[in-house]
Amino acid sequence: MHKRIIATLAAVILTSALSAQSAFAQTAQQTQTQQQAQQQPASPLKFDFKANPGETVKDAIIVSNQKDEDMQIQTAVLDFEVISEEGGIRFTNVVNDEHKLAAWVRFTEPAFLLKKGEVKRVDFEIDVPQDAKVGTHWAMIFFQGFNPKGEKTIETVAGSNAFIFLTVKGEGLHEEGFVKSFWIEKSGKNALNFVLRFSNLGNVILAPRGTITIENIWGKPVDRIDLNPDAIVTPNAIGKIVTNWQPKKGLSLGLYRAELKGYYGSKNTEFSTKASIWILPWEIGGAKYVLYVLAALVLIYLILRVFKIKITFVRAS
After folding, report:
1. Last residue of a domain, one of 168, 186, 206
2. Considering the entire predicted model, what is its pTM?
3. CATH of the domain at 221
């Protein structure tokens, strides 16, 4: 009889603790998601072209003037180099000739007036030289805005930045990549980051794609998510690709395993990798940890009370 009472009370206590944990996790997750949405900056556009030597590629960018006055717009194209695995870039004139692109880009209107509230289509062309080197070339487009007083207000030109990647086709194109490393790390209280370091050994930009299957300690799949769809890795570089996962009910105690099955390149070359992480009580939030401790203490108290167990502390002589 006593054992049944203890089992029932223990189940009620643990169920209450877990329910409170889930409610706490969901609230924290929603708050974090809202904060990220408010803080997330607008990403630049990205163009990805393929062309043969001697060909001309044409496209356009839409820009708008969100200021309360007219602006004179000046176009600019700059070469850049990637300086970090996280995608940090540096604009420079000293770029390997194998990847230069800025000199090939020209606008039909290099400078123009953009009236207050106006939305305008800006056409550009890329003239690929006959002797262009095979492989991917890249640059970035800017629109510099000046008000009637000649003061620069570049931040007010909506849609003003754009990455351009152009792969020159021909013999010698080389696509080769591999997984350098893959691991899982905590991201806030109720999320995980799956971090992939992918090495590009070829001369063509690679965009690894794939699916991450997440399993709990029992090997049961709890979710499947896509690898970060915005990830790209430039030639002869290592790119760090971070994919965030926020479980609907927050993180629970125990072991999480992740298996990434992906592919890259024009031939969809496959790759796979695995990682795991232990989530401990103090890693999922102070409030939830306190609930677990309280539940354990109450359970111990009930056992001592029902079975009339006395604990005596004896001072050592």
Report:
1. 168
2. 0.70
3. 2.60.40.10
